[in-house]
Write a structure and sequence with these properties.
This protein has about 130 residues and is mainly α. It has one domain. The chain contains five helices and two strands, in the order E-E-H-H-H-H-H. Strands 1-2 form a two-stranded antiparallel ribbon. A hairpin with a 2-residue loop joins strand 1 and strand 2. It is globular and about 45 Å long.
Amino acid sequence: MKNFGQEQGYESKLFGAPRPLAGAIIGVLIFLLILIPLKILQYATFMLFFLTFSLELPGRLVISALNTFAKTNPPESIGNILRVTISAIPPGILGWLIGSDKKSTRTAGIVLVVIYLCFLLVVGTFLALKAI
C-alpha cells in the first residue's frame, strides 16, 4: 500500500522547483538585491564602499588573477559584469546547501554562510583599506 507523497523518486519542492535549486536561486537573488543598490549609489560613503568591495571580493580576486597570469585586461563594463557574476556563485552554492532536504546539510549551509560573511567583511575591508 502506497502512502500519498511517499512515492519512489518523490522530492520536496519549493516554488515548484526542487528545494536545492530554489535555494540557489533565492541565494543569488538576495545577493543581487543587496549588491545592485550599492552599485547604483556609487559609494556615497566609505561604509558603502567597503561593503560593495567586500561583496565583490571573489570576482575581484578572479579578475586580478586573470590580469596577472593570463595578461588579460577586460574593458570596465565587462569587468563589472564578470565581478558580479563570479561573486554570485558562492551565494548560489550556499543557497543550494540551505535549501537541501537534509537537516544536517542545511545546518552546515548556515554555518558556512556565517563563515563566508565574516571572511568577506574582514578580508574585503582589509583589501579596501590597502587600496585607499
